[in-house]
């Protein structure tokens, strides 16, 4: 099984690319599973095969611990680690060629807290890699591009996995932006 983790800043297109790649792989007659790791997402362009929202409710975490949205997301993502064994079993049961992980929109909550690397190292132990999405809107200027690539380098250092940096959302740029 090949595991691909889609990582990037909020709004960089992780869920859209996850959906598009899953469709492309299915069209190529390969078996694909999608895992949603974002407990706070309300709408997805795909139906996840495994969804952390089945285990963790952001609203429930906020109410139980009397937290606001940011604190609730931090706690909810940290709570994923208490469900790793169940998630591992569900992943094994899928028995797919490719497993696509759609990570939370707030990259700092997933990549820069201890939970993110623990989740990645626990859920798929074989052929793993990160797909880091560099939002073209953020990369329009030299400073924006450098900042985005430094963030990508930080993610690479945190996870110690092969990483492919992909310029995303280029279809949303104006001709003057290129």
Provide the helix percentage.
40-55%
CATH topology: Rossmann fold
Structural class: alpha/beta
User: What's the gyration radius in Å?
Assistant: 16 Å
Strand content range: 15-25%
CATH architecture: 3-Layer(aba) Sandwich
Tally of helical runs: 7
Alpha carbon gap, first and last residue: 37 Å
Explain this structure:
The chain is an alpha/beta fold. The chain has one domain (2-177): 3-Layer(aba) Sandwich (Rossmann fold), CATH 3.40.50. The chain contains 7 helices and 6 strands. The chain has helices at 14-27, 58-65, 69-79, 84-94, 107-111, 115-123, 142-159; strands at 2-8, 32-36, 50-51, 98-102, 128-135, 163-168. Strands 3-2-4-1-5-6 form a 6-stranded parallel β-sheet, with helices on both faces. Helix 2 (58-65) crosses helix 3. The chain is globular and about 45 Å long. The termini are far apart. The mean pLDDT is 94.
What descriptive keywords fit this protein?
178 residues; alpha/beta; Rossmann fold; 6-stranded parallel beta sheet; 7 helices; 43% helix; globular
């Amino acid at each position: 099984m090949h595991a691909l983790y889609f990582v990037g800043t909020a709004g960089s297109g992780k869920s859209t690319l996850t959906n598009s790649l899953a469709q492309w792989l299915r069209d190529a007659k390969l078996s694909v599973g999608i895992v949603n790791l974002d407990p706070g997402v309300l709408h997805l362009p795909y139906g996840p095969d495994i969804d952390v929202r089945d285990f963790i409710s952001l609203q429930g975490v906020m109410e139980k611990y009397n937290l606001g949205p940011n604190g609730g997301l931090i706690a909810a993502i940290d709570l994923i680690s208490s469900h790793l064994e169940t998630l591992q079993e569900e992943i094994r049961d899928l028995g797919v060629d490719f497993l696509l992980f759609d990570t939370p929109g707030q990259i700092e909550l997933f990549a820069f807290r201890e939970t993110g690397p623990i989740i990645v190292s626990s859920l798929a132990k074989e052929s793993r890699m990160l797909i880091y999405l560099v939002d073209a809107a953020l990369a329009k200027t030299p400073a924006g591009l450098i900042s985005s690539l430094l963030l990508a380098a930080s993610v690479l250092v945190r996870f110690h996995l092969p990483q492919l940096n992909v310029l995303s959302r280029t279809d949303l740029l104006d001709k003057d932006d290129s």
